[in-house]
Amino acid sequence: MILTETSVVEYLGQRQLLAQGSPWSVAGSPSRNRNFSAAPAQGGPGFFVKQLRVTAPASVAMMQREATVYWLSRHDEDFAALQGLIPPFVLFDGAEKVLVLGLVPGSRSLFHHQQALGDFPVAVGEGLGRALAAVHQRVGLRMRSDPSRAAFPREVPGIFTAHRGGPLVQWLGAGQMRLIDQVRKSPVLSQALDHLAATWSFDSFTHGDIKFENCVLAQVLDGEVRIVDWELADFGDPCWDAGCIVQAYLYVCLLPFLARRGEGLAGRLDHAGARAAAMREALGGFWRHYAAGRASADLERVLGCAAARLIQMALEVMHGQPEPTPQALSLLELSEEVMARPLEAAGALGLGPVLKSPEGRTCPIYGESHERDRDRDRQARHTLGGRRELPDLRPGATLPPVGKGIQRDVPPGPRKTLGCRHELEDGPPGLTGPGSR
């Protein structure tokens, strides 16, 4: 069944999530998936409905992983801290490739919220810092020592290995591969990416694709941030998520000025003027609340991950182009500068005092002993287990089984409010393979 705005209510009624014949309002949103918001015409709790457009094994596996995260948040104490940070789980239909969640009323993405305001509210940055800190510090603490690889494969993000022919390259076009060639030829970028990948940690539950579009502000409920779209959730390095937030602030702030090439970070921020000043305040608020109470908040590594995410953004903005665009090349220039001098970049972004990198240090991500760390990285690539294990980079890696059944989190019968009673048929979607019976 292919869902449309006219068939969503029928689908929800067939699954006894609403009373047949009751008036509901449905709105679709353009996306790579079929996304719909459905709410009672008279007001009250509604649903967010996502159906895959592309049912390739990789897409199904990502939806299965996302459904697993939502299910665990309701039925595993190890993930209970996610409640209040994500929309509530309602139903996963493996046969139709549909995920149903509770609708967060009156919400909009941080991207559209900040765009509408023309500003970067400090309170939003602080809320985002609190939310991400809760994910990293309180979720999956028991599971992280031995997670199910079917659900959470413990993979290093593809951008860190693309320049070495990793799995990401199979999805890149000719123009994007030309940009990757420039990354490969850059001694700063290639060495730093190698180091970050080789020293990747797998001891925190991470979102994996956090950006303003995947964070919503619950304006009607409590004004706090909710995090959505958990398709790439995994046990991994928390610095990646934090670095993605740094990159998101920097990218949105400098977006009007990215066509100008050959200009450093400080110069671009000067051109942004008051926009950059507001961004610094909000980003500083994020970092204060994210790093508060953490035993270790490695700012230098976070900036390295932000630089890697800038490369990923460069690939995204030139999708379908035969050659790297000026905007993509500007992002690559920024990435190289941030990677080479992360502490200086942190100061320029309001994350700490402006610091100078030690003389002769062309790649500070490596720490004080460059040669020692390079030797450690080589050793890490041949070590199995623990924090040094790297994923298999071969294309066509084994994916979790595709499920057929329905996992629900509401009791049968017409509902006026979201249910929370556990009526699961087959267990967590990504852990057992939904509907495997």
Instruction: Let me know the largest β-sheet.
Output: 6 strands, antiparallel
SSE order, as H and E?
HEEEHEEEHHHHEEEEHHHHHHHEH
Number of beta-strand segments: 11
> How would you classify the helix and strand content by structural class?
alpha+beta
Distance between the termini: 22 Å
Any idea what the shape is?
globular
Could you name the ranges where pLDDT drops below 50 across 5 or more consecutive residues?
A: 360-364, 366-405, 410-426, 432-437
Strand order of the largest sheet: 1-2-3-5-4-11
Quickly count the helices.
14
The fraction of residues in strands falls at 5-15%
- Rg computed from alpha carbons, rounded to a whole number of angstroms: 22 Å
Calculate the mean pLDDT score and round it. 83
**Helical amount:** 25-40%
Please explain how this structure is put together.
The protein has 437 residues and is α+β, with helices and mostly antiparallel strands. The protein contains 14 helices and eleven strands. The strands form three sheets. It has a six-stranded antiparallel β-sheet with strand order 1-2-3-5-4-11, covered by helices on one side. α6 (187-198) packs across α10 (299-317), α10 packs antiparallel against α11 and α11 packs across α12 (342-348). It is globular.
